[in-house]
Amino acid sequence: YHWLHTRETQLSEFNQTEIKAMLGSYTKVLFVRDPFHRLIATFLQGMGISPSFSSFVQEVLDSGIHNSSVAWKPLVSLCQPCLIQYDYVVMFGFLRQELGHLLHRAGLAAGSLLPELTDSQVQWTYRWLSEQMFSELSAQQKKQLSHFYHWDLAAFPFSSSFLSD
Q: According to its record, how does it sit in the membrane (predicted)?
């Protein structure tokens, strides 16, 4: 599709026939991450102006889903997994294992392209961070976050998420 290479184009600018043809011509990969881990990463990167994680979470909750930043907006509203049939869904925390498989399927050499951290190191680090950050939140904030990310938690297997009931 030549017009895709001339300027940045939103998928919503095309009609249904064009969208179906475009999406059918690509291998679609969705990278997903536990929403609570996304919040932690956003906070640690300084994308919120709050002095504490708890006040940052309150800002997120106060912004609402429709006015929220892409950094913490629910994935379901960003990626439309119910409308787009992704060929692969890659879970953060299993990147090395899943990317190796994906690169192999694409016919690419995986060795030098994979991240150096092992999946278990990533999982352990985020488990520890999640415990620390989750303990800072009030019971009401925890409940509101679970509701905020309800559809993400239903759509993807984040069974060990602190936000899962």
A: Single-pass type II membrane protein
